[in-house]
TrEMBL record:
Subcellular localization: Cell membrane
GO biological process, one term: transmembrane transport
Membrane topology according to the record: Multi-pass membrane protein
InterPro entries named in the record: MetI-like, MetI-like_sf
Transmembrane segments: 21-42, 76-95, 107-125, 131-151, 227-247
Main location as per UniProt: membrane
Record keyword Transport present: yes
Assigned keywords, A-Z: Cell membrane, Membrane, Transmembrane, Transmembrane helix, Transport
Protein name per Swiss-Prot or TrEMBL: Nitrate ABC transporter permease
CC per GO annotation: plasma membrane
Superkingdom: Bacteria
């Protein structure tokens, strides 16, 4: 009973076994409610599993998933390089307004910019990559600039007392000192990119992708297929998010010391 009561007390630490049982019970309740739902348009879990088999056999689900995953990771890599350059440049007063302007572009919609990027690019693949890179960069820069501004002043003073010049301070305090947080920003922006993927692939259907497959089945009102594709997108996103999180723990194990367990 004590363990059960702890589940409803704020900021209480629970064992891994207790958390696993809690998740299993909640998942079981969710599946029961889903299976017994009176909403007829909602496909059952068995119908989704059956549709999943059909998608794998007849619609090249894994191939389309790989195309989309590669597009997302490629765009994320390019956007990360661009975003870090812009973010680190904001420590120089001359470039600070530019970084501020880039961060405000996150309020623009990609649909309205697709025509401009179509004129700039030369293929459907380039168009999708460009749209994805733009969508990721504006959020990435916003997060990184916020991290840089939140660095305590005493860290800069400490570096200067060690007779470092300002460029060395930038390297040690801002770049090396916050590189573990860069991976966390990458992890957060991957989720944003993964959500944008379907929309971007809908704008340019060249080369296919999981988004095109989803939109085609949605247009034909194949709801069980749509839910099956959504499930695959969700599971793949969770898996890649887990991998990025583990990479942060592997390369920067000290980063876990600041997290409340």
């Amino acid at each position: 009973m004590e363990k059960l009561k702890n589940l409803f007390i704020p900021n209480t630490k629970n064992s891994q076994s207790t958390i696993a049982i809690m998740v299993a019970v909640q998942l079981a309740v969710f599946l029961i409610l889903w299976t017994t739902s009176s909403f007829r348009l909602l496909p059952t879990p068995m119908e989704i599993i059956k549709s999943l088999k059909g998608l794998i056999a007849n619609q090249n689900l894994f191939y389309e998933l790989w195309n989309s995953t590669w597009l997302c990771l490629k765009s994320l890599f390019i956007a990360t390089i661009i975003s870090l350059i812009i973010s680190y440049a904001t420590v120089i007063p001359f470039f600070r307004p530019f970084g501020y302007l880039i961060s405000k572009f996150r309020f623009w919609t990609l649909v309205g910019l697709s025509f401009v990027f179509t004129l700039i690019t030369h293929s459907g693949h380039q168009l999708k990559v460009t749209l994805m890179v733009f969508g990721i960069t504006v959020f990435f820069v916003t997060s990184m600039v916020s991290i840089i501004r939140s660095i305590p002043k005493y860290e800069f003073y400490h570096a200067r007392t060690l007779r470092m010049n300002e460029w060395q301070v930038v390297w040690e305090v801002i770049i090396l000192g916050r590189f573990d947080q860069v991976l966390e920003v990458i992890r957060q922006n991957f989720a944003i990119a993964w959500m944008m993927l379907t929309m971007v692939e809908g704008i340019s259907r060249a080369e296919g992708g999981i988004g095109v497959l989803l939109l085609n089945n949605n247009k034909l009102l194949r709801l069980s297929d749509v839910f099956a594709i959504q499930l695959v997108i969700l599971l793949m996103g969770i898996f890649l998010d887990f991998i990025i999180g583990k990479l942060r723990e592997f390369f920067f194990p000290y980063s876990k010391m600041t997290i409340e367990k």
